[in-house]
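Replication protein: structure, please.
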Amino acid sequence: MAVSMANSGWIKLHRELLDKSIWQTSTSDQKVIMITLLLMANHKAIEWEWQGKKYVVQPGQFITSLPSITKKCGKGITIQKVRTALLRFEKYEFLTSKSTNKNRLITIVNWDSYQSDEENQQAKQQASNKQLTANKNDNNEKKNIYSDDFETFYKVYPNPKGKAQTYKNWKKVIKQHDPNEIIECAKRYQRSLRPDTEKAYITTSYNFLGQKQAYLDYLQGSERDQRQREHITRDIFRFEE
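Here you go.
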């Protein structure tokens, strides 16, 4: 079953999408599907159920199904066309898609980058000073450099440090894991620390998500726990032999 999103309101779409290869190389049907997905994406965080648990659907995310997407796309779009488009869009890193036997969670990657800043557009139309307009654009880019879910992670993490590098690592990690899972990892790590732990002994945010992948220890059903269990099982079999 798909989440019933509010149908009121509108989205802002940046013209730079026209210059992206994903748009230029898409078929007309795929462009219809792409715009439909952008229209279906949630514009604010809401709570919903996903995989039997309470889940906070972030801006740019939505829970839906292939039939629901097909229906909203309208005449001429089939479930197979939607399925093919989703796979293609994932390769272009336009979105991520996680499915169950009932529904699927779609996340528009870099959702904010497809939203045009209204104040910036007004400035472009009204300002006669080109330098002033350029400065405002630069400021807006700096404000929008980090995604909302990353900002949440950085806020709850016990030792946030090296924000730019942390964000680079973050973007790599969320290709494999849901952003909400990584935010929960940060919270679990925070809870595991003693109240008097000095900052020097707390892993920095960029290392937490870096090559050592410290966050894996705090995933629910930790991947490292699974690997350890597999090693133990193999050792038991060797012993019995």
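Notes: Residues 1-6, 118-124 have pLDDT under 50 and may be disordered.
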